[in-house]
Amino acid sequence: MDKPATDWTRLKPLIAEALALDPENRERLLARIAAEDADLAAEARRILTCQADDDFLIPPHIDEDEPKRLIGAQVGAYRVAALCGSGGMGHVYRAVRNDGAYEAVAALKVLRHDLLARPLLRRFAIERQALARLAHPQIARLLDAGSLDDGRPWLLMEWIDGEPIDAYVRRRGLSTRRRIELMVQAARAVQFAHENLVIHRDLKPSNIFADSSGSVRLLDFGVAKLLDEPATAGQTTRSSLTRFLTPGYASPEQLADEPLTTASDVY
């Protein structure tokens, strides 16, 4: 039987508080909650245990030299110019077109080498398919895709010259009205994705950029879900993706490793 929504309103802050504590104080918190509501404490403990088993919030080991090796390499019509950042699934670079056809800058996303033999290789294929169906002015466009000589897949994305939406509004001291206008842009982009049967699953300020013109762009569909995708034997499980989620922005059903709908993005 499904838990009532009121359970989630209590469970979410409890899990967030527990994650911020060391093991000893976490146990004290759960014991105190159990004295008041045994079912709530048991559910919180189940989710926390599941997250610990999946190395939740513990970044997989990354070879520090791996990202740098691609700098200067040629990928399609682009030369890899600089490393912009690394995450749990891959590395993002600034790439410059140098084939003489025209000048352009793009964002190159490359899967980490140690994930090649894992089911997470499938995530790139899903992200590519999601982006291919999302032609919208508020969603970063997919320009090209392929694989490196070592088999690692890559995605070439529209370069967004902006900053995370929270930093953007703070730095400019924007009014409440202007902030709401930016959020409306983001909401329309998310709605468009949902209409095309794509759930983003990791909406947070660092994945919602605002550029100098005040236009919002939705980024990083690395853990996106295609609602019309049939389940297959080799499909990545939900639990194998928990390490790539952001607890502070994850929906209760994501934290509980339950099936997701568009409501998760709305949350």
Summarize the structure.
Helices cover 35% and strands 19% of the residues. It has helices spanning 5-19, 23-36, 38-53, 121-132, 165-172, 176-195, 252-255, 263-266, and strands at 74-75, 78-86, 90-97, 105-111, 142-147, 153-158, 162-164, 198-199, 208-211, 216-218, 225-226.
Which CATH first-tier class of the largest domain would you pick?
Mainly Alpha
| Count of structural domains | 3
Write down the overall mean pLDDT.
82
How far is it from the N-terminal to the C-terminal residue, by CA?
22 Å
CATH architecture of the largest domain: Orthogonal Bundle
The strands making up the biggest β-sheet line up spatially as: 1-2-3-4-6-5
What does this structure look like?
The protein is globular and about 70 Å long. The protein has 8 helices and 11 strands. It folds into 3 domains: 5-53; 67-158, Phosphorylase Kinase, domain 1 (2-Layer Sandwich); 162-266, Transferase(Phosphotransferase) domain 1 (Transferase(Phosphotransferase), domain 1). It has 267 residues and is of the alpha+beta class. Strands 1-2-3-4-6-5 form a 6-stranded antiparallel β-sheet, with helices on one face. The chain has a 3-stranded antiparallel β-sheet with strand order 7-9-10. Strands 8-11 form a two-stranded antiparallel sheet. A hairpin with a 4-residue loop joins strand 9 and strand 10 (216-218). Mean pLDDT is 82; it is low at 53-60 and 232-242. The protein has helices at residues 5-19, 23-36, 38-53, 121-132, 165-172, 176-195, 252-255, 263-266; strands at residues 74-75, 78-86, 90-97, 105-111, 142-147, 153-158, 162-164, 198-199, 208-211, 216-218, 225-226. The protein is 35% helix and 19% strand.
